[in-house]
Amino acid sequence: ILSDDLVLSSIVADATTRQNAVLEVFIADDDDGNLLNGTPHYAELQSASIQKGIPYPEVPDLVAFGQGCPSSIPTPAPTCPQVNASGGTLSNTLRDNEYCYLVNNSGSYEVTSFMIFSGTTTSGNVTVPAHIYLDNNGVPQANPVASTTIVVGSTPAFYTATFSQPVPVSGTYYLGFDTSSDNVYLSTLTSGASGVGFWRDPANGTPNWTQSGLIQRPSWVVSCQNTSNFLLASIGLVGTPELGATYQPQVTNAPPTTIALLASGLSDQIYQGLPLPIAIPGASGCDLLVSADILTATTTSAAGTASLPISVPNQPSLVGLEVFHQWVLGDLPANSLGFVVSDGGVVVIRL
For residue 13, what pLDDT is reported? Predict the structure, then answer.
């Protein structure tokens, strides 16, 4: 009966492909509007999807939430990306399109400015728009997250785009250098390391970004800074929270060789009659994010990591149970309490 009800729901939703139909089945089974924490019959639907070889909405082993508070450990300076940082000889290519340049990046930091190698066909300066675009499945997003201008001179050289506020980035992003005025050269050299650019021309009927065949060896340098001056401890997970198995909440970016308490509970809403989060006295900016029903102790390594095993009983009634975790870490110089906390994390027990 359950199968009939859910499949009928997917038909009513007018799913046009098997994958979309499966998604509609999961949505129909959901009871709280959040597929990330599973559905009442997630295990059964997952098993059926795997057997049929159909993609389905996967629940992460751990979903992080909230934010930890700064420790006393300074954040290492980020490595700011660059390509052909010494410049070179321009290819002297002009186009009346908008261009941007791919920045391969796996870290998180703030962009304060970028320099790009170019020049103009004029005897004076030309001011052009400059932007930061975030990634949208391998191409720039339609709209920039930050904009400024670059004043480009006639001599081939690096010219700088400076943003009024630092621009937070995480993962791939793009440097927008709008040379559609057709009197500023594209940043591509006759020799050097390879790179990737994208173009679009909304005014002439090409609104979507397309990879450029002209941008082969761009030349640019990003200036960046950390989003925080001090490390924030981060929660993670090893293993899968499933019946009869053991999973391990872990912490990284923690103070080294110090006490580490794992707070675990069944709520992120209330603890001992008080609504969560709860500000921790003596530790400014540090909040308790989970009900600390159980505290388990260990110590961090010299690298600032720790983990603790949690065994899940093989009891079917536990399937779908949400368990919340947060790390509390000794750090005497950080504040008067001498402790900092990580972000929180929730796992959902599964078959």
Answer: 46
Give CA 123 to chain center in angstroms: 44
Q: Per residue, what are the HEC states of 192-228?
A: CCCCCEEEEEHHHCEEEEEECCCCCCCCEEEEEECCC
Residue type at 27? I
Q: What is the DSSP string of 150-162?
A: EEE-SSSEEEEEE
Task: Determine if residue 57 is left, alpha or beta; phi over 0 gives left, psi from -120 to 50 gives alpha, anything else beta.
Answer: beta
Return the structure tokens found at 329: 């870490």
Residue type, 186: L
Dihedral of alpha carbons 25, 28, 33, 34, sign: negative
E-assigned strand segments in 278-321: 278-279, 287-288, 294-299, 306-307, 310-311
Strand partners for 95 = none
Instruction: Return the SS3 of 51.
Output: helix
Residue partners of 329: CB distance under 8 A and separation at least 6: 71, 233, 251, 254, 255, 258, 259, 260, 261, 300, 339, 340, 341, 342
* CA nearest to 135, candidates 83, 189, 175, 91: 175
327's tokens: 């790390």
Q: Provide the whole-model pTM.
A: 0.63
Here the tokens at position 242 are 């499933």
Residues 240-278 pLDDT 10s:
999 999 999 999 999 999 999 999 999 999 999 999 999
Q: Name residue, tokens 């103009």.
A: 120
